[in-house]
Amino acid sequence: MALKACSDWREGISDFAAGGTATPALREHGAHCRGCAAALAEWQAKAAAINSVVERLAAVEAPVYGPDRVMARIGGRQRAYVGTWWRWAAAAAVAIVTLVWMWPVPRVEAGAISAWHSPTQGLLQSPAGTSWSEVPRFGEGIFKKKPGGGTGAQ
Amino acid sequence: MHEPAGEAADFERLMRASYRLIYRIAYSVLGNGADAEEVSQDAFLRAYEKFSSLRDAEKFRPWVARTAWRLALNRRRGSARAMGRDTSWVALRAPMEDPEAEASAREFEDRVRAEVERLPEKLRAVMRLSGVEEMDLRTIAAVLEIPEGTVRSRLHLARRTLLRTLWP
Q1: How far apart are alpha carbons B70 and B84 in whole angstroms?
Q2: Contact pairs from chain A to chain B, CB under 8 Å
Q3: pLDDT band with cut points at 50, 70 and 90 for residue B90
Q4: Cβ-proximal residues to B152 (8 Å cutoff; 6+ apart), any chain
Q5: Per-residue pLDDT tens digits for A39-49
């Protein structure tokens, strides 16, 4: 005849089998009750069966070439990255050279530059400028000459 | 992206040491070898891009595990292919001599799988990760970014739910 767990302890026993903690009262009861001790063993076997199935769900051997494939993908990415970098750099250099080559440079005549005068150039001339630019005749005092051109009263 | 040779060598060493775990984490979510491999590769590529801040092995492994977990979940949500789980894991169980016992064991496994799928997302996550070899409470906590105590209580709740559903 199969032994049965006491109905009061059934829940506590299954809970303990699932990994819970046993209260001192349950421990004491289990030590004396053969039905509950048998039920505990049964629940623990069931819990172990569940665990073994769950373990089997992930118990798979990783492919031995897996790490090599990771390294190969990393190598491929690096090559692609370097390749892309060089391609962009070369394209940018070609574009710059083409722009410089084709850009219309305005031609400026040398004569036009020398003929040009600043609008404020007249302000730079001193009122005494004419006195400095004219060479006095021999015997004529330079400081006796008026800025207007005539000679001072002597 | 242009790494010095020393960094690349460090990365390769850490990657090779944790590849198996990362693959299994992805597989536990996707149940499909090809998808698990792609997700593992993507997770490691992301780790490579951030390797300057992940050189420490203590940081590297949990970071890649977390990334692989998220990528796998995203792929699972987005891909109908992932739903067609391959059954290669069934072959891992030693075949039984008694066909009746074999059928019964398969039926039980299918039921457990179905019940795991029915668990709420939070409980399902800890349950799946707990099945991955090398995944202790601390690692699961790091992957899911929750405290270890929460992992323990969720795992307990998930097991209790499964026990009571399978043997009401």
Answers
A1: 19
A2: 117
A3: very low
A4: A19, B137
A5: 888 888 888 88
